[in-house]
Design brief:
single chain, mainly beta, 22-stranded parallel beta sheet, 18-stranded parallel beta sheet, 4 helices, 44% strand, globular
């Protein structure tokens, strides 16, 4: 079927009435009761909208006061909405500064007790964001009351918006879309997180309709009712730990330019779960539970690019038709790599009928983590700091970029540590000069700022360390820029260094920017984890910049959303019983996106590489134990190297063990994607469900390489040297189960650390 014919069928489907769709009894329309209550202690640099005349009683028109607050926004501003109901009668405009936008803005409310309700004309937009980067929207309810068309719209007419966070928000009763990127905008909104957000009774929960709306991550969300949960045309999304109920058309409508993934999601009573079509982009669906879909064609409809689907369970079907249907769209049939999918009440699991080609991987040692289609991930409680110790107000820090604030900040940290119980050492917006390492140890407190414009600036000895973290117990470092290049040149050697003396530790980093973005200097600065043992856990919620692990292979390290710079994993120690996993990662303008040295192991589920010199570098030595790298990614793209030379997407130098690579989209440049292997140590390298878009595979192999290509395809098809990319090696299929087990373990760690209730804990 052609792309055009498929779109015509889809449009007809969207216009047809849909019957038989009911909501779960515990999901009443028009409420946000399951959103957390965030009882903040206001900070010294927060602008309170009630101080500007907002009333928040649900009767007074608060539009002018709220707009006055937004008009005053500049770099690092925080606009605070105390608990209340704010009546809005026209669009609230949050506009970035000309010629570059506004950095590090925070709009924050009290969660379910801060409500913005629309009382303006039908079809209006409640909030319009135009050119605000590294921004956060935290803790409020937007209610369109069945009249407003759009809740929050990102327009970005003049500036590429990036690293936007939407957290603990509810979008209720919008006639078009709860969260929209304006389809007529000029630039882009990318690297965006939607976390613990509720979408209820919106025609579409989220709509991403143009190119450059890339790397959108949805985590812990819930979509109730409406027609479409998430619509993605031309961009790409990663949807995990999310529940859908009663979508009248489909939960996920995906026509992406780059690869997408759907992991650990549940669907109850929707017409269909996933409708995916693109001829060049791959898809992964992992560990999902789907119950009571009503579309007679199936619950998952896929076509075009290769798809990997595993550990999914389907119950209460509308008939005997299998739940997974391939629409084809590729000569010889769409490639489907599948494993451990179950549908006991239908005539099989797959409906391919000549349109698809199945590659079935036998069961591994692990299995999916979810147990029910009614499992939810939206949290009604959320940890926030308690008592605030303010570096400027309480300890005399200046934050003026000139004064030495080292002693004042350390005193603030020491006070929060002594208080414990969730206290925070807070750095208001500003540039804080330090001349010696700030030391973080102890337990149960936070150190943080307002966001991207709360910045630590090094003026100490060359090669010094800015922040030293040792043996932390339930400590969080959040909303700070530490040594990143936006604050100017600095001579320090490491931005943040975490070490261990051998005891247990648990450390969280969230919304931290370190050195590395666009720098092509992978070994400089950044966040370093050194010498962490088996009783050490590090949870990285959001990090920008270089990430470097040294001799920490016994620790548990999970990175949820990390952007830019390079990841380096190394260490000569032979004890390697830990786990290092990455969920969302972006690497652009880097030498290599990932370095794995000394035969270490690594797992990534959604690793996006663009405009890079090279891709992965894997190295080992004869005395290193075997390692394993499992890597999936939406895009693998390289720009010509300015100083000459060639791009090498995959470099292997005597790495031994296994590499499981794919699904991955190899994207246009270079026209020959080179795998350069050297060494005689044995290495099994699997490429599975990969899409080569106007590229081919060029292998330079040493004696130790055994290459396996399973379910890959080239667009457009090409005979000759590339034909091997569609080779099915039956004897290799059982061995792919090990790679799937890595992804299952990554899911288990994610649920254990971030959604323990989904595991019964």
């Amino acid at each position: 079927m052609s792309d055009r014919a498929y779109l015509v069928i889809l449009l007809i489907t969207l216009l047809l009435p849909t019957a038989g769709c009911t909501l779960a009894a515990d999901a009443p329309l028009g409420t946000a009761a399951s959103l957390p209550l965030l009882n903040w202690e206001p900070r010294s640099d927060w602008v309170n909208v009630k101080d500007l005349g907002a009333v928040g009683d649900g009767r007074a028109d608060d539009t002018a006061a709220l707009q006055q607050a937004l008009d005053g926004v500049t770099h690092g501003s925080t606009v605070y909405f105390p608990a209340g109901t704010y009546r809005v009668t026209s669009t609230l405009n949050l506009r970035g500064l000309p010629h570059g936008g506004t950095l590090g803005v925070l709009l924050v409310g009290h969660g379910r007790d801060t409500r913005l309700i629309w009382d303006g004309p039908e079809g209006g937009r409640m909030i319009l964001d135009d050119g605000v980067l590294h921004a956060r929207y935290v803790g409020f309810v937007l209610d369109g009351q069945g009249r407003a068309a759009v809740g929050l719209c990102h327009k970005n007419s003049e500036r590429f918006e990036t690293e936007i966070r939407h957290q603990n928000l509810a979008f209720l009763n919008f006639t078009d879309t709860g969260l929209l990127v304006d389809p007529e905008r000029v630039q882009a909104t990318a690297e965006t997180l939607v976390e613990n957000c509720l979408f209820e009774n919106c025609k579409r929960g989220v709509a991403l309709l143009r190119f450059n709306e890339y790397d959108w991550t949805f985590d812990g969300c819930e979509f109730r009712g409406g027609e479409i949960g998430i619509q993605c045309d031309h961009g790409n999304v990663y949807v995990r730990n999310t529940h859908f109920t009663g979508s009248q058309v489909v939960d996920l409508l995906l026509h992406p330019e780059h690869g997408c993934s759907v992991r650990r999601c549940t669907s109850l009573g929707s017409r269909a779960f996933v409708d995916f079509y693109n001829s060049v982009a791959p898809l992964t669906i992992q560990d999902c539970r789907v119950e009571g879909w009503t579309n007679p064609e199936g619950a998952i409809l896929v076509g075009g690019g290769p798809a990997m689907i595993f550990d999914c369970v389907f119950t209460r079907p509308p008939g005997r038709t299998p739940p997974i249907m391939s629409r084809g769209g590729y000569p010889g049939g769409q490639r489907l790599v599948v494993s451990q999918n179950v549908s006991a009440e239908t005539e099989g699991v797959y409906n391919v009928e000549g349109r698809g080609r199945l590659y079935e991987i036998p069961p591994g040692e692990r299995q999916g983590s979810l147990t029910s289609a009614d499992q939810r991930f939206l949290k009604d409680t959320w940890p926030i700091p308690t008592k605030v110790f303010d570096a400027k107000r309480d300890f005399g820090a200046k934050g003026d970029g000139q004064s030495d604030d080292t002693a004042a900040i350390q005193a603030t940290i020491d006070a929060a540590r002594a208080a414990g119980k969730g206290a925070i050492a807070y750095l208001p917006t500003g540039f804080y000069v330090i001349t010696d390492a700030l030391r973080i140890t102890g337990s149960d407190y936070y150190v943080g700022g307002s966001g991207f414009r709360s910045s630590l600036v090094w003026r100490g000895p060359e090669g010094g360390t800015m922040v030293l973290v040792e043996d932390p117990q339930r400590v969080t470092l959040e909303n700070l820029a530490v040594g990143n290049h936006d604050a100017g040149p600095m001579s320090n050697g490491i931005d943040i260094l975490q070490t261990s003396t051998g005891g247990p530790s648990f450390m969280t980093y969230d919304n931290i920017a370190v050195f590395g973005m666009y720098q092509r200097q992978p070994l400089r600065k950044g966040l370093w984890l050194r010498g962490l043992g088996k009783n050490c856990t590090v949870l990285i919620g959001h990090l920008q910049g270089n990430l470097h692990l040294v001799d920490s292979a016994q620790a548990t390290v999970l990175a949820k959303t990390t952007y830019e710079g390079s990841i380096v994993v190394e260490g000569k120690g032979k004890e390697r019983g830990g786990f290092f996993g990455v969920l969302t990662r972006l690497g652009t303008l880097v030498t290599h996106a990932l370095y794995v040295k000394d035969n270490h192991s690594f797992v990534a589920s959604d690793f996006y590489v663009e405009q890079a010199n090279h891709g992965l570098s894997l190295e080992g030595a004869p005395d290193d134990p075997p390692g394993r790298v499992t890597f999936q990614g939406p895009k693998f793209h390289f720009s010509p190297i300015q100083e000459g030379g060639e791009n090498i997407p995959l470099t292997v130098n005597n790495y031994s063990g296994q590499v499981f690579f794919g699904p991955v989209q190899f994207y246009i440049e270079p026209t020959a994607m080179r795998l350069r292997h050297q060494g005689d140590r044995p290495l099994d390298f699997f490429l599975s469900a990969c899409s080569f878009y106007n590229t081919g595979l060029d292998v330079q192999s040493g004696p130790g390489l055994r290459l396996h290509l399973i379910g890959c395809q080239r667009v457009p098809p090409q005979e000759g040297a590339y034909a091997a990319a569609d080779t099915l090696l039956e004897e290799a299929l059982p061995r792919l189960a090990v790679g799937l087990d890595d992804l299952r373990r990554l899911g288990e760690v994610d649920l254990r650390l971030n959604h323990p209730s989904a595991l019964g804990g």
